[in-house]
Amino acid sequence: MNAQVEKSSIVTSVTLISALALLATVAFFVAALIGIITAIPSDDGSRKQAAVIDRIKPVARIVLTDPNAAPPVAAVLTGPEVYNKVCMACHATGASGAPKVGAKDLWEPRFAQGLDTLVNHAVNGIRAMPAKGGNPALTETNIRDAIVYMLAETGIKTDAAAPAPAAEAAPK
Ligand code: HEC
User: Fold this and answer.
1) Using an 8 Å Cβ cutoff, are 65 and 129 in contact?
2) Measured in angstroms, how far is the CA atom of residue 41 from the centroid of ligand 1?
3) HSE (side-chain half, CA atoms, 13 Å) at 43
4) Do 132 and 122 touch, CB atoms closer than 8 A?
5) Does ligand 1 come within 6 angstroms of the Cβ of 147?
């Protein structure tokens, strides 16, 4: 009888220890799992965004270029061509107060400012005169050539037929 009581208490102890061990094991794994889960950074959408950018990359490649970089075709236009294409619209008729080509009395006081000033005003715009006559593809040389042509047509001689005064820029 005594031995049986002892045996049953041993069984109880073993069962209890096993249960505790099992509980500890479960607790350990739960803790480990929580550790793993919290170690993974949450996705704020950037991973998805990166994947999207990667997917569209070969299709959409945008290259921004300087809009002031004139297309080569503009550089080969002559003064008369620039005038006929762009400037004539206003300067042939005197529209919106533009000095009309041929009106020497209108051009002479303007030319008195100097050709460089006229070029500067035509490139950057002045009052009702839009910058580059409204065509940003034109180069400063295009504008200068057109002005020289307009002045020549008006009967005002410029010495700009000679190449640009590079000598002026040379160190003294
Ligand atoms: C939309 C009409 C218009 C076009 C196009 C136009 N002009 Fe003019 N331009 C004007 C007007 C208006 C003035 C007078 C501005 C003022 O002095 O109030 C003027 C003035 C000028 C002057 C005199 C500036 C000064 O300092 O007195 C020059 C030079 C000139 N234009 C060059 C050109 C050239 C070169 C082109 C073509 C590339 C051109 N313009 C195209 C309207 C135009």
Assistant:
1) no
2) 63
3) 7
4) yes
5) yes
Does the Cβ of 118 fall within 6 Å of ligand 1?
A: yes
CB atoms within 10 A of CB 79: 22
Q: What angle do CA 120, 122, 142 make, to 5 degrees?
A: 95
CA of 107 to the centre of ligand 1 (A): 11
**Tens-digit pLDDT profile for residues 110-149:** 999 999 999 999 999 999 999 999 999 999 999 999 999 9
Count the neighbouring beta carbons within 10 Å of the beta carbon of residue 147: 26
Distance from C-alpha of 141 to C-alpha of 74, rounded to nearest angstrom: 10
The token duo for 155 is 């009967």
